[in-house]
Amino acid sequence: MPWHSTVSRTRQLLPPELFEQVFTRVPSLCAEAGMVAGHTQVVDSALIKANASMDSLELKVPRETLEAHLGRVGAISRADRKAKENKATVGQQTLTATRGELQEIEARNRRWGLGQDQRTGARNKNSKYTSNKTHYSPVDPDARIAVKPGKARKLCYLLQLSVDTAHHTITHVQADLADRKENQCLPSVLGSLSGRLHQMGLGCNTLLADAGYSSGENYALLEQEGITAFIPPHGTYKGGPEGFSYNKEEDCWVCPQGKKATFRKMKVEPKGSIRKKLYLTTRRDCKGCPLRESCIGKGHEKKVEITYYREEYERVIARLKSRYGRKMKGLRQATVEPVLGTLINFLGLRKINTRVIKQAHKVMLLAATAYNLKKLLNFKPRESQTAVMALPRASAATLLMLFLAAGIEINLRKVKRD
């Protein structure tokens, strides 16, 4: 029976593969009814609150002091512990952040505390800056601290969603860790989505998403799969410098004075693993240049950093600037935003009431299945009926009489005008 306790217990006992099969079956029924086109898919994500409190967070400790820390915590009475049971593994309790990352978190913590104390009406004086690198939740180790501008920090899961543009049918849903970036999740979403559409006899050739899914690796992957991407690039993209022209044969950038900035090495930024190509001129080229002050200032040579997947970025930017690209932007916003709002506000995804990511994935699959079933039950296909009736063949005398009558009517109208 569809009762809450029955559904909850069944959800815990059954494997996730069964929920995947049930979810795949419903979009297949929608495709048979003509609700899924498949060619254009919209991908987006949303943070869903986990069933864990920020007050339950505990500090990670280095591996060499982990045993002593666990012994000290075990000696504390259960009444003093925030969590009745620590479900985190030893790896999840161990500090893995580097020295530089810890120093950055410490400096950010100082700025956080000063700003919090100086803010008028602040309740949490001397509050601490929490991070996934230094803290974990013992009650739900898979929940991650979500950071979103303008909103309070909370433990969340990341909902990944794919919606078909024909009738807003959900074609894929999955749960991810909240500290993962959207562009890191796109390859797994694309693989599962393509497999499910292939089972339904459909194929995707256009993908719409926001700037969070932008990366050169994703652009190259989509082009390799034959999918046209409408994903706006974010601020990390660096194209060619102003006034410079690119020589593809020699792989160099030519300045307005005709000097060449040649390729030297590949550069990988530690944050986000962003790959860039570094081009440099020589000191001799820039020594007597009249544009030296405005170009390199007090430097000795011109340094040019270019995003590794520049050609893929340029093709996507040109596509987005077109009239069709602006239309696709409006289609993306009108397709996926209402679906996310319905799932969160009306289908139980405002908060995940279970724990660990495997159970959260089941909850999201059930919510998406219920959404698709409601769409299927309310779907009414357009029925167009065309009636054709054969008229009797007119004789020559009848046609002659019709022509004469039309001529007489035209002459009478001319007489009335005169």
TrEMBL record:
<feature type="domain" description="Transposase DDE">
    <location>
        <begin position="254"/>
        <end position="377"/>
    </location>
</feature>
<keyword id="KW-0472">Membrane</keyword>
<dbReference type="Pfam" id="PF13751">
    <property type="entry name" value="DDE_Tnp_1_6"/>
</dbReference>
<keyword id="KW-1133">Transmembrane helix</keyword>
<dbReference type="InterPro" id="IPR025668">
    <property type="entry name" value="Tnp_DDE_dom"/>
</dbReference>
<feature type="transmembrane region" description="Helical">
    <location>
        <begin position="390"/>
        <end position="412"/>
    </location>
</feature>
<feature type="region of interest" description="Disordered">
    <location>
        <begin position="108"/>
        <end position="141"/>
    </location>
</feature>
<keyword id="KW-0812">Transmembrane</keyword>
<feature type="compositionally biased region" description="Polar residues">
    <location>
        <begin position="117"/>
        <end position="135"/>
    </location>
</feature>
<protein>
    <recommendedName>
        <fullName>Transposase DDE domain-containing protein</fullName>
    </recommendedName>
</protein>
